[in-house]
Amino acid sequence: MRRPLLLAAAALASGLALAGPGASAAEEGQEIQHEAWSFYGILGTFDRAAEQRGFQVYKDVCANCHSLNLLAYRDLAEIGLSSEEVKAVAAGVEVQDGPNDQGQMFERPGKPSDPFKAPFANEQAARAANNGALPPDLSLVVKARAGGPDYVYSVLTGFKEAPAGFKMADGMNYNTAFAGHQIAMPPPLSEGVVTYADGTKASVPQMAHDVVTFLAWAANPELETRHRLGVKSIIFLVILAGLLFAVKRKIWADVH
Fold this sequence. Notes:
Layout: H1 8-17, H2 48-60, H3 83-91, E1 94-97, E2 106-109, H4 123-129, H5 141-144, H6 148-157, E3 173-174, E4 182-183, H7 204-219, H8 223-251
Antiparallel strand pairs: 1-2, 3-4
Helix pairs in contact: 1-8, 2-7, 6-7
């Protein structure tokens, strides 16, 4: 695991925190849709097929602008990719390495141990390519946004034509879920923008659901382990309470 496991109490708290829809968006007027996520609840788990489809959406669409700085390619084994698939994904990018014996930096194919390659060399390059807006890193976006996965899903599916009389700033796009309803990011998803290897129809809601599942895993890779630990802790405490009650009755049985 990439991050240390929490104690049992934290595990239970984490599970309960995901037991229902995320916090409501702060600004009045934001339209937040509430999806059924497989990872909600203390017994929640990630849908591996959805995670893999979501990674495909990230790789083919989101990675053109958004980084995923806290992940390495080898972490994809956790969503069910084989070692050969992980190697192929990593080798599909060129990363800078060095210096070599001549003191020069050089490009080489990626390796599983490499972190995900960022789409831009630095913040200035990212802003220059996006009309001054900085595409956020997506590693923790599901945790960082009020409303969690519901909010991210709602933004991805919330691009509409601006209503009559709504004044749009230059270069902005109308979005029903975004605060103020004006967002610099153009609609990233459109019907069939990716072709799923498993044959699933790549509708906008399907792609949004899948990529949010992948990003939820990226932000909480230890979630399933914490949930299992929490359940085991509850079972242990229930058994312990029963044993203590039985011992108490035995000890005090003859006392009147």
